Amino acid sequence: MNKLCIVVPCYNEEQALLYTNAELINIMNRLVKSGKVDKTSFILYVDDGSKDGTWNLICNFRKQSAMIFGLKLARNTGHQNALTAGLLTAMNYADMVISIDADLQDDVSVMEEMVDLYLRGNDIVYGVRNRRDTDTLFKKFSALGFYRLMQLMKIKIVYNHADYRLMSKRALLQFSLYKERNLFLRGIVPLIGYPSATVMYDRKSRVAGRSKYSLGKMFSMAFEGITSFSIQPIQMITDLGLGIVLFSICAAIYAFYSYITGKVVAGWTSTILSIWFIGGVQLLSVGLIGTYIGKIYVEVKERPRYAIEVNHLTEIRHEQS
Ligand code: UDP
Ligand code: MG
After folding, report:
1. How confident is the model at residue 183, as a pLDDT?
2. Closest CA to 160 of 131, 134, 194, 188
3. Which residues cross the membrane (predicted)?
4. Whose alpha carbon is nearest atom 5 of ligand 1?
């Protein structure tokens, strides 16, 4: 059976959802008609504790179409957690899951290609953006910086791929074994290692509503991505520390040489400067190490990543029996 589920995390997406829902139903009908996916395939909206009418809208959609299901999280837990809630729930009811944002920035028509690639034996199909024409200059630059940084930190992620992807049940089962609280799906999925493929598409601008990713959120996402996947920064600080020690040994030799040859070292400025410099490096290092310790603290508590308040999918068993 090739039962497909499209998972859509939504946070205050009232404005975008009407449009998105019509488009998704459309593509789903097309897929079912082509015989590529099972006719019991469905769409799962995850309401990530929205404060607007998102959940009501989802419930209305459900009344209009048997293909629609909702998953309501008890509070806002962020994009990555909401997506995880959707994936891990959908996994129990579907053979393959496609995740897509609610704002339809990603081209839904490539879902057909994704399913084709799945049918040809790929467990993971990454949606990759061709161009970034619709992104603001700022977003383009920050994205470029982000990927460069990831490269530098030796973290394997797929270039220009966000969270638009297909995953097989097998891949999702494997994903469910990654228990970390500090979630960064784009970093985890390539670690799964099952056969994968990519499809290209053009990213559009949001259909409606505003981006939920502020500069601060993007920065913390990059920081999260780095410190959850790489201990490279700690290595770099060790290297920096070593470099500074070597440099100060040379400086000490030079100072001693100047002293015995009678030249007086003009000391004050350099002393003060080096104290500040070393102080800065130390603070930075302690802060960074603290970040990793903080992560250990968060991970060892093993708190739940989300709480499900309502799950329409549980009705499936009743309907079938
Ligand atoms: N989202 C969510 N919880 C949040 C923030 C965002 O579920 O706390 C959802 C949002 O509704 C959207 C997706 O995550 O479907 C991506 O968010 P957005 O489009 O704002 O990000 P951008 O495309 O600007 O990076
Ligand atoms: Mg978006």
Report:
1. 84
2. 131
3. 240-260, 272-293
4. 79
Strand partners, 89: none
CA distance 233 to 289: 9
The pLDDT tens digits of the residues spanning 286-302 come to 888 988 998 898 888 88
Atom 8 (ligand 1): residue with closest C-alpha?
Answer: 78
- For residues 105 and 204, is the Cβ–Cβ distance under 8 A? yes
| Cα–Cα distance measured from residue 131 to residue 263, given in angstroms and rounded to the nearest whole number | 62
CB-based contacts of 155, cutoff 8 Å, min separation 6: 187, 225, 226, 229, 230
Q: What's domain 4-213+304-320's architecture?
A: Alpha-Beta Complex (3.90)
Best of 6, 10, 11 to mutate for ligand 1, by most ligand atoms within 8 A of CB? Answer: 11
**pTM (global) more than 0.90:** no
Query: Among the atoms of ligand 1, which is closest to the Cα of residue 102?
Result: 15
Angle value at C-alpha 7, between 148 and 91, nearest 5 degrees: 100
Pick the ligand that lies closest to the CA of residue 136.
Answer: 1
pLDDT tens digit at each of 321 positions of the chain:
899 999 999 999 999 999 999 999 999 999 999 999 999 999 999 999 999 999 999 999 999 999 999 999 999 999 999 999 999 999 999 999 999 999 999 999 999 999 999 999 999 999 998 876 777 788 788 888 888 888 888 888 898 898 999 999 999 999 999 988 888 899 999 999 999 999 999 887 777 777 777 778 888 888 888 888 888 888 888 888 888 888 888 877 887 787 788 766 667 667 777 788 888 888 888 888 988 998 898 888 888 999 999 999 998 865 554
Mutate which of 10, 77, 101 for ligand 1? The one with the most ligand atoms within 8 Å of its CB, which is 101
How far is ligand 2, taken at its centre, from the CA of residue 11, in Å? Answer: 11
Indicate the SS3 state at residue 241. Answer: helix
What ligand 1 atom has the least distance to the C-alpha of 11?
A: 11
